[in-house]
Amino acid sequence: MADSPDGNTPERDDDLFRSLVDRAAVGLFIIDPETGQILDANDRVCEWLGYAKEEVRDMTIFDCQTTFSRPPEWQTFVRRVRDEGGVEIENEIRTDTGSTLPVEGSISVASVDGTEYVVAIPRRVADRDG
């Protein structure tokens, strides 16, 4: 495969991007807009939740936050996010111990190759205040 102008291969670019996303100070969830299935999350989210990345990928959004408890609520919210072009929300995420962490963040819907994804970028409220 050909190198890009900066000398990197596409695989190296993907690895670099993943490494940077995982080291971000904020969280990142990629979520199925219909089912609420968590498709991916960065290391920060996994650290906050207390689960390994593979465990988080087996979860739904209903398993780890307190605002949405059922798919119909989630789907109504996703429609709002689409209509408004993104929203800012406050929520609490539920950890493996059952405790909750207050977060705020931005939620958007992105389409890649005809498939929609919900992109959630939470920040711990305590991090903002510290």
Automatic annotation (TrEMBL):
PROSITE patterns: PAS. CDD domains: PAS. Pfam families: PAS_9. Residues 13-56 form the PAS domain. InterPro entries: PAS (IPR000014), PAS-like_dom_sf (IPR035965). This is PAS domain S-box-containing protein. It comes from Halopenitus malekzadehii.
